[in-house]
Amino acid sequence: MPANRPSSADQTFAARHVGVIGRDRERALAELGADSLDELIELAAPADILTPVTAPSLPPAADEASVRAELARLAGRNRVTHALIGQGFHGTLTPAVIRRNVFENPSWYTAYTPYQPEISQGRLEALITFQQMVEDLTGLPVANSSLLDEASAAAEGMLLARRASRARTSRFIVGRALLPQVRAVAAGRAAALDLELVEADLTDPASWRPEVEQGCFGLLAAYPDAEGRVWDPREVFEAVHEAGGICVAECDILALAMLTPPGELGADVAVGTTQRFGVPIGYGGPHAGYMAVRKGLERQIPGRLVGMSRDADGVPAYRLALQTREQHIRRDRATSNICTAQVLLAVMAAMYAVWHGPEGIRRIAQQVHDRTVALAEALGAAGLDPAEGPFFDTLRIRLPGRAEEIWLRARQAGYTLALLDADTVGLSLDETVTAEDVTALAGLIGGRHTDAGAGADAAWEWPGALIRTSDFLTHPVFTSYRSETSFMRYLKRLADRDYGLDRGMIPLGSCTMKLNAAVEMEPVSWPEFADLHPFAPADDAAGTLQLIDDLETWLAELTGYDTVSLQPNAGSQGEYAGLLAIRGYQHSRGEDQRRVCLVPSSAHGTNAASAALAGLRVVVVGSDDQGNIDLADLAAKIEANADQLAAIMLTYPSTHGVYEAKVRRVCQMVHDAGGQVYIDGANLNALLGVARPGEIGGDVSHLNLHKTFAIPHGGGGPGVGPVAVKAHLAPFLPGHPQSPRHDHVNTRGGSLEHGSAPVASAPYGSASVLPISWAYIRLMGVDGLREATGQAVLNANYVARRLQSQIPVLYTGANGLVAHECILDLRPLTHRTGISVDDVAKRLIDYGFHAPTMSFPVAGTLMVEPTESEDLAELDRFCDAMGAIVAEADRVAEGAWPADDNPLVNSPHPAYRLMADDWQHPYSRKVAAYPGVAASAGRDEESGLHMNPVTRIQAKYWPPVGRIDNAFGDRHLVCSCPPPEAFEEV
């Protein structure tokens, strides 16, 4: 047994989660002059923030078998019926090959956002396939690579219309027949920005025409609408265009396989969700929203956009395009605050389209529609009126005085319908509905069965102008992988082109790429969690709701707040919800004039963008020479804004990587001026178990479950960003019009109601991934969480100490220590050698590493966060690689290699370049591909193989492309799948 590992009796989950233990931990601590993790924290952090953290409701840490059994008991309390509620959430069949090879595959779910495109080519190819799928189905030429969900995508469409419209008005028209959650989220966004929403019946010109004539900057229309109607929006679109407005169509992605696409009807923007393309309902999420736009709006599109470019050798390559590469760096000038999307779910939806192809997608849509027609005919024959006109998959059935009776009868038979009112039930069919289900439903509701596929009643036939005639999914990718063998190999090829945590360390500052343990991930696929509809009766979700109660309680207790909302489905949405809570509270006190948000330059990157979207004016507070908030500048900014101060947004520890000593003083200064304190939870993994932001002075914090609490990043999503607040802000947390309940945990006893506008489609956001964080906390216990925090701080300081003689650390705190991350200042190296931060980042790929965060928050630096999960050997390998890169840069400065032709500026080195017959570089292929081997390789006595602690010879990661030319891609924007001939000369 290795000496640095504990005995089997001590193999707790925490010991498996934390990478450096035993003798290795002792050695690392000795490097820093500390005897224990607790002592290290005391040396690094201000004494006045440290407090014994307890969570009375959280039991002691449990082993994996016990936690799995507890989760199984919770899952067993859920009742999964055949939910035909619809309303934006539909049953779907996830192909097993996608579930196993994507959804449950760490190569896909542990990757990071593709900011380093050279090592993200597989994911980027899958995302451009998603974009192509959306473009084809919507009939619009540019689509982004996903948004957070349907409702927020619709709200983003409204904001895009505001930016792009030439109309000088704040009025925006929304269709009366929108999904309730879409209307509610849009209304919340509009209120924050003082926009006026105007409702109209878009099927009736007498309703909408006067509103358009009064002026509007745009319109949001559902197609088909929430009542299930298929209708022609061309007339209203033309009128809005004449008024200078932008037309946004919210579309059912499956219906578009049969309906004339919105781009052919005159829509400028199409939004919606791709959930019914193979992504489980999961009690509301995560699901990939989508947005497509007409030509001319591509630079206005929010979120991420994948584009085509070329590498240094002219090889076609993918990358994030335009401003979406580093949207958060634009701060308050960003077009969106979204810094994560739903990449994993977008990949699943794209692969669903690849697996089924155009014929399969059309067949599924046709089957859903035919069975809906068959049910409608059966109900019509029984004297019921199931629809007012043409429909796709949704019926509304009038049952005067009998709706609840029929609803209960269906429940007893295992079906859940939508109980719309005392006289009306609704139902939406999906691909899981069989012909036998149609027979059963016809009998339950009161009609008689007719064969699925029978001809429609003339009143239900679609107008010819709304029947799709254009082709879709014509690119070869959608027709090339019909056998499971070929499709499995395609997915494997894509995964092999990427770099995830299953390959090695991803030391990204402020992003916390830690272990996502298999035992935590496993329950996400269980049907009891995955197949729940978010609007099902509360009794059906008893187990999930108990899990939610537990998680809300534990998170509130661990952070020192009174209540938590789990609804925000990304960290950016948690920021936004927290700021809206502040605004709602101040409005209730008659303080609407408070519109200024102070944002320190050391704050997390999305803070300023979130503040702008919440209707606040951003004022930046400077930092002093040590990277702390400049108290004199803070005092001046507070005085200058006096009674207009709404809040300050702190990140603690700061994005500069230090525990600021005067944080309590900062909070007090803002409170004394009547403002609220928002403490960003992006760096909570440096506080958890040792300090509580709610006790430091915070009124509100958002927490990143995809960082601190082990939900994987999924290649750029899913994320979950709960918001925790003190009791006075609780009423202003997001509510939801279809929530199964409105009471939430109050750690002071009793319960609290959250009643503000929702920020997500579902009441509990991305609920299907919450078992991951529940399991993580339950496995670790308070003591394990405290140990993880200490180890994260130890690992960051170990890296900083090892590298300090070669690369200075830009900011340090007490005793020369950092928090859980450190900023390596490469500017002196660049000044001395000409080697840039980009060169260092790309050369790290040759050494087998994902680069740290580049040039944020300070240009020309690398922000490194090793996390608590990496072992000492991997930390040493990273430090050795950085040291070797410095030595290579010095060789350039010495003239051994030319400034324009050396291993750094030419990095990374793909295999095809190394295999070229003509090698004209002044360094060898060996130096290019296996850096450091000649200097440090030795021979393993047992195997006889050469081993190298820096570059893993036998596990070499080969980048699929060389350095990508982003500028070329932006000048020649291509955001759809390139034709096969684009690769013929490679």
Automatic annotation (TrEMBL):
Domain Glycine dehydrogenase C-terminal: from-to ranges = 788-909
SUPFAM superfamilies per UniProt: PLP-dependent transferases (SSF53383)
Q: Which cofactors is this protein said to need?
A: pyridoxal 5'-phosphate
UniProt subunit comment: The glycine cleavage system is composed of four proteins: P, T, L and H.
Query: For the modification N6-(pyridoxal phosphate)lysine, which residues carry it?
Result: K707
What GO CC terms are in its UniProt record? cytosol; glycine cleavage complex
So what family is this one in? Belongs to the GcvP family.
| Pfam families in UniProt | GcvP2_C, GDC-P
| Protein keywords | Oxidoreductase, Pyridoxal phosphate
What EC number is given for this enzyme?
A: 1.4.4.2
Q: Does the keyword Oxidoreductase apply?
A: yes
Q: Which InterPro entries match?
A: GcvP, GDC-P_C, GDC-P_N, GDC_P, PyrdxlP-dep_Trfase, PyrdxlP-dep_Trfase_major, PyrdxlP-dep_Trfase_small
HAMAP family xrefs:
GcvP (MF_00711)
Q: What does this protein do?
A: The glycine cleavage system catalyzes the degradation of glycine. The P protein binds the alpha-amino group of glycine through its pyridoxal phosphate cofactor; CO(2) is released and the remaining methylamine moiety is then transferred to the lipoamide cofactor of the H protein.
EC top class, as a word: oxidoreductase
Q: Which organism is it from?
A: Acidipropionibacterium jensenii
The reaction(s) catalysed by this protein are: N(6)-[(R)-lipoyl]-L-lysyl-[glycine-cleavage complex H protein] + glycine + H(+) = N(6)-[(R)-S(8)-aminomethyldihydrolipoyl]-L-lysyl-[glycine-cleavage complex H protein] + CO2
Q: Which domain of life is it from?
A: Bacteria
Among CDD domains, the record links this protein to: GDC-P
Q: What is this protein called?
A: Glycine dehydrogenase (decarboxylating)
Domain Glycine cleavage system P-protein N-terminal: from-to ranges = 16-441, 481-735
Look up keyword Oxidoreductase and say if it applies.
Answer: yes
